[in-house]
Design a protein that fits this description.
homotetramer, mainly alpha
Amino acid sequence: MSNAGPDDPRRRISLRTTRMEAFSDGIFAIAATLLVLDLMIPAVTSKDVSHQLVEQWPTYVAYLVSFATIGNAWLNHSVITEYLARADAILLRLNLALLFFLSVLPFPTHMLAEYRSNQGDERIAVTVYGLNLLAISGFISIVWHYALWQRLVGRDNSDEDVRALTSKLDPSLVSYAVVIGIGLLRPWIAVLFYLVIALFMIIPFRAVLREARRRRGS
Amino acid sequence: MSNAGPDDPRRRISLRTTRMEAFSDGIFAIAATLLVLDLMIPAVTSKDVSHQLVEQWPTYVAYLVSFATIGNAWLNHSVITEYLARADAILLRLNLALLFFLSVLPFPTHMLAEYRSNQGDERIAVTVYGLNLLAISGFISIVWHYALWQRLVGRDNSDEDVRALTSKLDPSLVSYAVVIGIGLLRPWIAVLFYLVIALFMIIPFRAVLREARRRRGS
Amino acid sequence: MSNAGPDDPRRRISLRTTRMEAFSDGIFAIAATLLVLDLMIPAVTSKDVSHQLVEQWPTYVAYLVSFATIGNAWLNHSVITEYLARADAILLRLNLALLFFLSVLPFPTHMLAEYRSNQGDERIAVTVYGLNLLAISGFISIVWHYALWQRLVGRDNSDEDVRALTSKLDPSLVSYAVVIGIGLLRPWIAVLFYLVIALFMIIPFRAVLREARRRRGS
Amino acid sequence: MSNAGPDDPRRRISLRTTRMEAFSDGIFAIAATLLVLDLMIPAVTSKDVSHQLVEQWPTYVAYLVSFATIGNAWLNHSVITEYLARADAILLRLNLALLFFLSVLPFPTHMLAEYRSNQGDERIAVTVYGLNLLAISGFISIVWHYALWQRLVGRDNSDEDVRALTSKLDPSLVSYAVVIGIGLLRPWIAVLFYLVIALFMIIPFRAVLREARRRRGS
């Protein structure tokens, strides 16, 4: 896709995207799977296990929100690399910052599941969690805008595709910022909003609509 | 394989399958390997260690069933992606739902190993475990049928191959549903059935037979 | 490499080896890295930490032997897949059995590190560990011989290369069987032998010699 | 890139680099992500959680330094494999030694986070940690120099590129050796230096400067 020859000065900092993809897929997959280590099973006591399992619902919600967020980040990341013709030294570092915030997500997820008893602790947990989601979402946008700015995106992608991705990534930043504010007042309302954001972005309304339109048109 | 040109409306939602494969392989591999963290070794006590190791047999059975189920799911998934010419936005999301149920499997596996002392707890554990296996198996079928419906399967695959895979995936759903029912009455009988289902699907009777027939024919 | 056309009956069971490689690499990498979770640091007590760290030497030896064994298994596996032109349904299953024994290795490694105080427990731990190494080594040989038997190996590999790999894989089975016997009498001698076997196979004497000969010859 | 034909004696020990890359990416990704398991959340006590979280700052510093070091090692490793035309038996083993020291890094990272209360223990932890970083950095240099020496580097890479990478890898060895010395006197100063080294190498000053110069020149 890149037509830079060996004498092109840009060539020096061009890199294949294969290892960036493989390393990123590894971190995405491990961060998503390590979350299960926090799903503790109740100890065998005189109390009914089914009640104890049900009482753990905030743990399951936290698990589901984190998995959905990582899944959604992976979807966006895979579309970005689909459009990339090549990587450069700075893009790899920005991607590394994204992976840092992804790999740390199990920590605030664990806080979220544990600190629901105390109102003050809960607020801290939900705020730290929201900041982590904002950082993930923010660095995905940064990676994408940097790639556009440095023309690392292949020319065979239509302008419409590129705009569609941009218009999908950027609004989520605003959503996260708003919900962090809500979380300071009503922590668990914010968590439910994070779930809604992740599911809303995962469920491909746009693709479904486009598909429906295409079917009618043909 | 897809001959959609840049002006084809379908092109917009076509994606390579490489990252979907890499991310899925990561989740499959980690889910399969994290199971070992539940194989706890007995503490050094006055009691003979060999007896304690033998007493842990339900833990080993649970480990083996889960590993075999993940291995079998991976085999089916890799055949599906072998046939896929391209992915679309919805297929990636259906695949994500499959990966969700795969990555959560260590949780009911752990319940299965722990709750064998109490009859009521055991029934809950075996049922939750069965529902998880059913969800994995169900989403593999959904991914496959969606790919067929949307013609994401490459045209160079013979109809016979496609039918063979369909006739392998769908019956397992019925088996899991039946065994979940059995598990409500006889929990450990159900676990042994899950092992039988996984091993039956892993051992390639069909391939062995076809190979035998080919040898006689040639 | 495979010149089987679409009408060749063998084609039906031919699969690319990419996903088998990716899934295997995932399991190898995770099994090797999970071992570090067993390197427990001593608690902060009145006792000098440096002494406690030194006293933990059997844990480090167990870690090193397991990492070297997994590394060596990976080397052999990667040479096998280098030679493979394609996979079939049975090869994938044999490979899955190999991955099962790889992913379970952290369990006997943990036993090895813990059960050094009691002579009887130690013997059990070393024997289980040896059987696990034998199973890994055995299934690598089985995968290789199956691939040779079914002519899944590309024809552009010289017979000499193929013989060299066979003559490297098979003797290790005998070594492991002998050392399991030694372990019944002198457990820790066996562990040191396992380290020697792994390092002996990792250090590429053959390649060094061939390189030296080539240099003299040219 | 390699133009060695089937009769070239060098061909026998030539291997594709794909599996070496996949296995390495797996270990890099898992080692980076497992670090999160050491970020323990404070127990719910009467004490304010926010204070306890702040008191854990050495754990966060250790996490950040290790993640940045692994990220930086990955960047260098991916540039090396970008330049590699092929691998040989010895290169794979040297790479395995590098992966060994990478996968063990969570252990001294954990020591670093735990042993800050006692001056003597802290010195041991910081020294072991520094030696681990030195080993990682050293084996990356060894892999690179071996590849250069054995002419495994593709000929289409300019001499300038190759020299630029060499001049980036080797000085870090000296830095680590000096900081290990500092750590014997002032442990936490050394940890901050390790952070500075990792960030300095991650932030692509060279690429930024070159880009700026290119923009002025064009």
